Amino acid sequence: MADAGKMTYFAGLRSRGEPTQMIAAYKGGVKLEVELIDFDEWGKRKGKVAPYMPYITQPDGKIFLDTVPICKHLATLGGKFIVDEKTEKLCELGNSPPLQLADPAYNLPDGGVSLGCPPYDELKPLALACIKDQLLPQLTGPFFAGAEPGFGEAFIWHNLDNWFALCKDDIAAEVGADGMAKLQTFYDKFAALDGIKEYLAGRSKVWGVPGSKANPKSD
Q1: Which of 17, 33, 78, 104 sits at 20 to 30 Å (Cα–Cα) from 24?
Q2: CATH fold label, 85-197
Q3: Could you tell me the end-to-end alpha-carbon distance of the chain, in angstroms, rounded to an integer?
Q4: Rounded distance, CA 205 to CA 117, Å?
Q5: CA-CA distance, 179 to 115, in Å (whole number)?
Q6: DSSP-derived secondary structure letter, 186
């Protein structure tokens, strides 16, 4: 098993750290230590250890940056996912607005507005259109890559996981019954893959900063 080193990301956020862990977990392909830190600890490291997260500290001590290259790197090391241009572009779509903005919309109390993200009511129709017009046409089999998944599908599954939590009924209305059936079939099949299933069973059941849509404040 290839040793990728240690991946560092925020604790408690259902965000960019998830696809990296799923790619490493798939069929047990990659050894990846996971370090989840809080905002205070990140404040001590930002600009000193790395400019942003996630980052990987490789076995030789070198820092590996940028989410899509990290995902591709882990998939290449693991040798289990399809790695090609199509799935890399799929990963880029998942890591870009509007799909990726489900992360702050779901996890942060203000939905990321203070970070420059659009308000949720403006973001949601953009995401619905993207799912219908850009994402769904690429889903030609059980997976976007066909009979077997490509590495970019981990990020798309993550996107759908958050968007389903935010507005699944709205997605179903946007894409129609057939479109929703395709999305749900992909979502379920990917979640049942060897290694992915075990990762999901073991992940946190509580997400988001208190006051967020993921973790609403109690009365």
Answers
A1: 104
A2: Glutathione S-transferase Yfyf (Class Pi); Chain A, domain 2 (1.20.1050)
A3: 48
A4: 26
A5: 32
A6: H
Contacts of 90 (CB under 8 A, 6+ apart): 138, 144, 150, 152, 153, 155, 156
pTM equals 0.96
- 39-89 pLDDT, tens per residue? 999 999 999 999 999 999 999 999 999 999 999 999 999 999 999 999 999
Nearest 5°: the CA angle 135, 7, 43 is 100
Q: What is the pLDDT of residues 83-142, one digit of tens each?
A: 999 999 999 999 999 999 999 999 999 999 999 999 999 999 999 999 999 999 999 899
To which residue do tokens 């990659």 refer?
30
